Input
Amino acid sequence: MHNLRRTIITGTERNFLKMQPIRIQPILAREGKPSVDIAEASRIIGEAAVFNDLICIRDKKHWEQVISTLPDDVDAIMPISSPCYPTEIWNESPEVLARRGLPVIFWPLIRFDEPDFWKWSATDMLRALGVTVYLVNNCHEGVTLIKAMAVKKFLASSRMVVFGKQNFPWNVHAAGKFIRESFGTELIVKPLEAFRKAGENFTEKELLAFWEQHSARYLDQVPDRRELLTALRTYFGIRAILDAEKACGFGVNCYGELIIEGSRDVPCLAQCLAREEGFIAACDGDFCAMLNMAMVTFLLDAPCMMSNLYPLNYIGALTEHFGDPLAAKPEYAVYGRNLARLAHCGYVGVVSPEMVPGGRARLSDWGGTYELKRDGKGCGVDSDLAGKQEFTGMELHFNGKDMVLVHGEILESTRHAGMPHCESSALLRFDDLDFFVRHVSREHIVVTYGDRRRELEILAQVLGVNIHN
Output
């Protein structure tokens, strides 16, 4: 299902990175012409779902026996009417659905691509009994729903690794339990030394052979060749641990430990390479951002990135942090309080080649900050985002139950002359930045191209997450 940036060249088969299709049991209410053509529904949905053979119900006893004894690998029930009147067997005997506890999907009328409005009352009645019911508006949203259910299933059995001390608010020891409770995803904490030690097992020849097959996607302007090799070794070490743990993603606490201890084996390039091979990767060990990136990657099959968000109306705080307010050009004044910048580690953030105009990410030395001066070491990623481009931004809250979605436009990527600690940033216009700030979780925001709010709303419904937008 998930093929974006999947360029595994190591020969390793990583089944733990692959979403499995959900299994749907279609059930026809009685003999007659089905209101939904299951073969056509299967064709529309594609490989996101597998359909069991259609079961035609004979009577109430048969219905209750079928629902009660459905195999454990069934993920959802798709009731089909014949004919379309609200007297179906699930209305006569709905309690068995509540006891079985499987989601119910009422698929749209395919010929008209419309919701089956005869199911309005059944939907409400079943929900009142505690049944999870999806009355699908159209086939496109239906496909998104099925993918969302597959994402939920994937997250429930997934693991992610966070490297470094837990001294930021995204503290796994303190708040990671909410992610496990909401999604089932396990968060594993390991010391920085874990990936450093694992990286020692690989030779320079192996690193360079790998880089030869990936380097075309990057513009290499790293001043010191040794820093590039360190970045590659960092990725190999991280990947070895992800493989051993069967973990789908990682984050490293750079500013809380790695950078401030004087090290420069930053995982910027490692993030890009990990995404190429199908992993999730986010800055600073922010596990909420990692979950958001997993949602975008696996539901939408789209690239995404995360960075620090700086509302430009916070002039004092920005000046103190950057030594400059990073003001927008006068031509953007029309957008008033809805302007903000993305910036992290001296650049826009870790932008993968898929999001870069031209498709090549630029590698440079690590960019530093106003407080932690750039020293020419490390391997950073200095790439632009596409300008004049719609975006959707998101932040999952620490409670695992709330998520804010925002929409706007990426106006430009700006080069900041004479600011080595902030060479570049991205200028964003929000539809309503004040709304976002009222519902903000962290300075970290995950961004993907396009208006993807409706698809993410459907995913949130499946995951049981409250959406603020």
Observations:
- The first helix runs from residue 38 to 45.
